Amino acid sequence: MNLSKLNSLKIGGKADSYLEINNPEDLQKITSPHLIIGKGTNILFSDKGFRGQIVRLHNQFFQALNDSIKASASCNLPSFVINMATMGYDFSDLSWPGTIGGSVFGNAGTPEADTFSKLLEITYFDLKEKKFHTKKNSEIPNSYRFSDFKNHRDRLIYEVKFKKPQKKQSKEILNTIKEKAKKRAEIQPKGKNAGSFFKNPKNNSAGRLIDLAGCKGLSINDALCSPIHANFLINQKNATQADMIELAKIIKKRVQDKFNIILEPEVQILDEFGKTINL
Ligand SMILES: Cc1cc2nc3c(=O)[nH]c(=O)nc-3n(C[C@H](O)[C@H](O)[C@H](O)COP(=O)(O)OP(=O)(O)OC[C@H]3O[C@@H](n4cnc5c(N)ncnc54)[C@H](O)[C@@H]3O)c2cc1C
Description:
The protein is of the alpha+beta class. The chain has three domains: 3-57, Uridine Diphospho-n-acetylenolpyruvylglucosamine Reductase, domain 2; 62-185, Uridine Diphospho-n-acetylenolpyruvylglucosamine Reductase, domain 3; 189-269, UDP-N-acetylenolpyruvoylglucosamine reductase, C-terminal domain (Uridine Diphospho-n-acetylenolpyruvylglucosamine Reductase, domain 1), CATH 3.90.78.10. Helices cover 22% and strands 24% of the residues. It has helices at residues 77-86, 100-105, 170-187, 206-212, 241-259; strands at residues 15-21, 34-37, 43-44, 50-57, 62-64, 68-72, 119-126, 131-136, 142-143, 146-147, 155-163, 219-220, 223-225, 233-235, 268-269. The strands form five sheets. The chain has a five-stranded antiparallel β-sheet. The longest helix is centred in the last third of the chain and has 19 residues, at 241-259. The site of flavin-adenine dinucleotide has 32 residues, from β2, α2 and β11. Flavin-adenine dinucleotide is lined by residues 8, 35-43, 57, 73, 96-99, 101-103, 105-106, 108-110, 149, 156-157, 188, 193-195, 268.
């Protein structure tokens, strides 16, 4: 399986094998080493691919219960948000690409809301113990773009329960979703990218710092620092992971030299063994 097909940057070499999980029994087919992925909207894969098994959840389901909304981690978040709107539940705050699982892993969010603020509980499958666990959201350490799943890569997020919002008119929610999508389209560049490349430093904006450090429009081969939004690194055509890393390193150094602030990547930059590459 070519990893470039499994991520929004369209970068990455071949993985040794690929497994889709359609039911709990399939979890027994996971071998080691493995890497669990969602929609690949927050990953920069290695040009050498991945030495092991890529695991992807495939069984999308969601259900309104008495006091919560249950959903599989495999749900595509934008479709989930629209489905909920048609049922009268407003999840328009969660309007970014990817799956629910990926969103929990990185506690994805915006200044308005993050994933954990919407959750009641999370069920994960521990691949070492071969056992399911259900935890309250407060039992899993989380903060800005962080959840404890980042420290436990062998925990596969399987399903979640969201807090159930008060019912609203579907039309009203669908309008809010449309407006948010329009605003995003105005400020975010198109093309192959992984959203914000760096995390915002405390009380600051990575995009603003990168812009002021003069990096907009900077490129290494086909890797480009977007002239529209400086925190978006774009694969213009055939950029490699090496190109993206070189560009990101230059941006990081320029921001550090000018502001004495060290930017940290938000995107998961992985080597061929699934280990995080530090810039
Ligand atoms: C145009 C664009 C806009 C974006 N805007 C935002 C934004 O506003 N806010 C924001 O926070 N992010 C944003 N992002 C980044 C991205 O959408 C989020 O990080 C998203 O939650 C990633 O989900 P995914 O399914 O694509 O995860 P992947 O990229 O597939 O995976 C990300 C990480 O999660 C792990 N993972 C995925 N699924 C599971 C699982 N089931 N169990 C355990 N681990 C898992 C993977 O191993 C990987 O380390 C944007 C991206 C794009 C391309």
